[in-house]
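Morning. Coffee machine broken again, so started the prediction first thing and wrote up yesterday's gels while waiting. Chain of 419 residues, entered below exactly as on the submission form.
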Amino acid sequence: MKLRRLSPDEAASTRREPVDRDTLDRAAAIVDRVRRGGEPALRELAEELGDLTPGAPLVLDREALESARASVAPPVVALLERTARRIAAFADAQRRSLTGLEVPVPGGVAGHDVAPVERAGCYAPGGLYPLPSSVLMTAVTARTAGVAEVWVASPRPAPVILAAAAVAGADAVLAVGGAQAIAALAYGAGPVPACDVVVGPGNRWVTAAKKLVAGDVGIDLLAGPSELVVLADDQADPATVAADLLAQAEHDPDALPVLVTTSAALADAVDAELSRQLADLPTAATAAALAGGFTVVARDLDQAVTVCNRLAPEHLQVLASQVDAIAGRLRHWGGLFVGAAAAEVLGDYGAGPNHTLPTGGVARFKGGLSVLDFLRVRTWLRMEAGDAADDLARDAAALARLEGLEAHARAAERRIAGR
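Came back before lunch.
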């Protein structure tokens, strides 16, 4: 198994759109059908697309979630609870770093407060494997942010998905996936209430639907196929590099595993290790997505760093000597993993930071899912009559007239003492 070799310039042109136009158009019909038809349309679509068998419950309530938790092996529940605690601890630290403020202004005080949304919808993919980690990453973060009502949507949810929802404190699970689930969370459908924010990773149908409902509700980001860039020098262990690339490749056939290295010898050794490790990998059929990945052999570390910054990947892992110096030069990533011990899979599975991250170069302007996605910064202004307030009102009136808005000017001038 050999990763194709690309030049630095070729690598820069590999950025992918999170969703194609055909999927977007077809998802729009699904979203519109649920928005207009409500619960009956949602159920029809869920049965047509294989999410539900006829007569199966659309929604699983808190009692059903607790029953599922009781049915799951205690060691598995304990694992879910430990992971949830780590996610919550990190999210809580984020939340406590975001505080209200007050700032003096002429004649008064301005400020902001930080408040959670009231209701959140959290999507967890079904796909090839159940992903309880995505339930924890989304729903635990929402709860830690202070969201009062948290819904999870996941197609054909396995007991471990329902147990994870119970551990995360979700109120209910919508047993539906795809664009139809996103539409239900965004606009409501029967027992499913309209949410203020819809978050979580998913396939191209989920991503398309999130793009369509954005603006009517808040979303976290548009995540395309998963990506990992490993930045490695000649000191990196080829077997470790190969293991990390294969871990990324087994997500799905569209995953993008990339090696950026200063060593052609390392690149060759990694190719050999990929073949060796694939030979007995149970998920080898999916991990053959390595064929979509590539290697860039840079002339030096400066060029390697430049390539990584241009790619702005979802996951960026540094396996090299002097990792701290290198990490300080990297500018764009969804999640950064510094050093051989900081495996990207530890981020996937609950070290603390969220694993719902931007793909396709979006890391240039957007971070991953966090408590921020469930919070609103709301500003306020309190004024006291007096000379300072009069000066502010005069300036406001002057600016309003500069823009031709006389009613604005007069409303400001009514606040001036003596008028």
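The mean pLDDT is 94. Going to sketch it on the whiteboard this afternoon.
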